[in-house]
Amino acid sequence: MRLLALLLALVAAPAAAHKSSDSYLALKVDGAQIEGQWDIALRDLDFAVGLDANADGEITWGEVKARQPDIAAYALARLALRSETTACPARATGHLLDDHSDGAYAVLRFEATCPDAIADLEVDYSLLFDLDPQHRGLLRLEHAAATRTAVFGPERGTQRFAVAELSWWRQLRDYGREGVWHIWVGFDHILFLLSLLLPAVLKYANGRWEAVDAFAPAVWDVFKIVTAFTVAHSITLGLATLDVVALPSRLVESAIAASVVLAALNNLFPVVRRGRWAVAFLFGLVHGFGFAAVLRDLALPQGALALALVGFNLGVEVGQLAMVAVFLPVAFLLARTALYRRVILVGGSALIVLAAGIWLAERAFDVSLL
């Protein structure tokens, strides 16, 4: 029943499954000075402070410009910077607009001054947490030649950084943590993997799914699936992050949703019964472009890209392996029961098709169904 509960929880997740509400906060520390840039989605600001003055569903530059003081006041009231325990007051210095992979963003530039040179910087982030508990703030912190990242959420709204110790190891760990977080909140990635993992403890014989005879074949099947998915998304993650290949965001997100639909449908109407690792590889290429959107939107400096790619990719693999470690033993124990074969496999796959079908329609036609 735990597997079914997990499936229901994932299917009930927000329909904009892959690209949730994010903002991008960049801080550059130099002595006692902090230069900041904060990219916040216009759709989020419209929800928070109301930008669409004429309620026509379109937000214009004029409407944004008219609310610039309110945007700055709203945002900076939800960001506190402290050196040790001393506050570093921030003031707005400029406003711009920019496009990210998921739409238009307001760009707020600001400066903050601390009493002394900053050794430890505490960042208290609370933007939109009262309106959207799924919102996340992605931080890029620069000091000298080093860059590190962090993710803020309601459960981790205040974080402290030793800016004088931005070693390569710390940066690798930060990017790895972000990779783990991304796979765990990327509901479409999770459902795609689940669609491939659900039949891993079964074999298709006599026109129906039956339990495998031993645990080892299931482990080998999962190993091939996860390895193929890993290799594939690593290829396109690198190509997209390095701007070797660029695809439209809507196309990528629609293709990811379609991959979930097809993988789950194959459980209901088995067409690919063997070699599902090839399916994982094929669609893993698409999912890699989705992973790359996060690193691109962070606008990392060229010197940090290699480290970011390695760390982020390792984090994604750790997140995947954690899922497999929990899923596989439980699934194997339940595989001989009608509960697993009829309710979890069939019912769960049907729910996945429904959820991913909604995502596909929303992303392909740019509509909101839920």
List keywords for this structure.
12 strands, single chain, alpha+beta, globular, six-stranded mixed β-sheet, 52% helix, 2 domains
Distance between the termini: 26 Å
- Placed side by side, the strands forming the largest sheet appear as 5-6-2-1-8-9
**Number of helices in the DSSP assignment:** 11
Helix content: 40-55%
Query: What is the count of structural domains?
Result: 2
Secondary structure topology:
Layout: H1 2-11, E1 22-30, E2 33-41, H2 42-49, H3 61-66, H4 68-76, E3 79-83, E4 86-87, E5 90-100, E6 103-113, E7 120-125, E8 136-143, E9 146-152, E10 158-162, H5 168-185, H6 187-197, E11 202-205, E12 208-211, H7 215-241, H8 249-268, H9 276-297, H10 302-334, H11 338-365
Account of the 3D structure:
There is one protein chain. The chain contains 11 helices and 12 strands. The chain starts with a helix and ends in a 5-residue tail after the last helix. 52% of the residues lie in helices and 22% in strands. The strands form 3 sheets. Strands 5-6-2-1-8-9 form a 6-stranded mixed sheet. The protein has a 4-stranded antiparallel sheet with strand order 4-3-7-10, with no helix packed on it. The chain has a two-stranded antiparallel ribbon with strand order 11-12. Mean pLDDT is 88; it is low at 4-18. α1 (2-11) packs parallel to α11, α6 (187-197) packs parallel to α8 (249-268) and α7 (215-241) packs parallel to α9. The protein is globular and about 75 Å long. With 370 residues, it is of the alpha+beta class. The protein has 2 domains: 2-16 and 186-365; 24-177, no CATH class.
